[in-house]
Amino acid sequence: MALIVHKYGGTSMGSPERIKNVAKRVAKWARAGHQMVVVPSAMSGETNRLLGLAKELAPSRVSTAYHRELDMLAATGEQASSALVAIAMQAEGLESVSYAGWQVPVRTDSSFTKARIESIDDKRVRADLDAGKVVIVTGFQGIDPDGNITTLGRGGSDTSAVAIAAAMKAAECLIYTDVDGVYTTDPRVVPEAKRLTTLSFEEMLEMASLGSKVLQIRSVEFAGKYKVPLRVLSSFTPVDIDVNEEAVSGTLITFEEDEKMEKAVVSGIAFTRDEAKISVLGVPDTPGIAYQILGEVAEANIDVDVIIQNLSKDGKTDFSFTVNRNDYQRTIDLLKDKVLPKLGAQEVVGDTKIAKVSIVGIGMRSHVGVASKMFRALSEEGINIKMISTSEIKTSVVIDEKYVELAVRALHKAFELDQA
Ligand code: ASP
Ligand code: MG
């Protein structure tokens, strides 16, 4: 008998009919002899609806007091769906009880709307499991040291589920969602994209941070830190499919590189349109320049991604980097106000119409020529590369936004991901 955590996304919670299906699926697992903890998201659209109401009342408030109330508000979405799952479980003839994060408790820090889980007390949940109950725990939320309700950021139910699985040492954490696994790339862009049966944790982490929206990135970090076996699978398979068949479906995130397995050099292509490029032109090429520019940016809590410093000419150089598109204007203003005067740099220019496309694969560690194959495929399509960044298991390029789909299709083909 194993302890299993199931997480169901908003679409799976979309209607009473779908919640009934969730209950039937969980009941099947419970009847197969497993101890079950279920972590539901809010019903689809509910979090947006709630946050939209707040926005109508206070369009652009930014204060801790306001963010505290946003969490108080948004957490109700998961409380409602959790109670509904417990009710549906009971209707299926199983004993079931639901808990909000604060009742478990799931302890977090006090960063409202983006809190981090610090610890989970599993006593209450374990006692219920031992009494034969199916336990439902709200996703997305916890309680801070002062007793305030907190939420974990959008998509945070994934992280709740993984954290609970880690705290309870679950045999596996199954993330049920509206896709049937992790794909080589977004199938809406490349219809030939293939589902990966396994993906290493490092690759998943890169894919999640590079724009694949399947899992919240923090949930992947959590899974890596605590070695939680994680599986992404569809909640739209027939509820009565054999439990053993279901148990091996989807994509399993693995932790050890299986030496014997012939691994593709590149496992997937990720892309994001969320970034913007900023260049500071004509900065003096002297020690400390990068720090003087990026130090101010970091000070303002703005994340920087790809960074390039050009070769200097006549003692001057250009310095470029990317930030999230939402931070674009703030970064430009900050550089104009604080950095340009100090450096005597000539100009700040920017471009929001860019996209970042990345190839990801642990096979890149042991193969040469992977990046050049990427550059060749892009050049054959006439796509100009604006910036490049690499790490051990990924190569990213920044290109014009209008070529992103063409680039993804070309790379998917070049690395033969459609033949997997
Ligand atoms: N309901 C929350 C959201 O929409 C959390 C989640 O679904 O994971 O972001
Ligand atoms: Mg989600």
Secondary structure blueprint with pairings:
Elements: E1 3-8, H1 16-31, E2 35-40, H2 46-57, H3 64-91, E3 96-99, E4 106-108, E5 117-120, H4 123-130, E6 134-137, E7 141-143, E8 149-151, H5 157-167, E9 172-177, E10 198-200, H6 201-209, H7 217-226, E11 230-234, H8 243-246, E12 251-254, E13 268-272, E14 275-284, H9 289-299, E15 304-309, E16 316-324, H10 328-343, E17 347-351, E18 354-360, H11 370-380, E19 387-391, E20 394-400, H12 404-414
Parallel strand pairs: 1-2, 1-9, 2-6, 3-6, 9-11, 10-12
Antiparallel strand pairs: 4-5, 7-8, 11-12, 13-18, 14-16, 14-17, 15-16, 18-20, 19-20
Bound molecules: aspartic acid and magnesium ion (MG).
Number of helices: 12
Q: Which ligands accompany this protein?
A: aspartic acid, magnesium ion
First CA to last CA: what distance?
35 Å
Low-confidence stretches: none
Task: Report on the biggest sheet.
Answer: 8 strands, mixed
Spatial sequence of strands, sheet with the most strands: 3-6-2-1-9-11-12-10
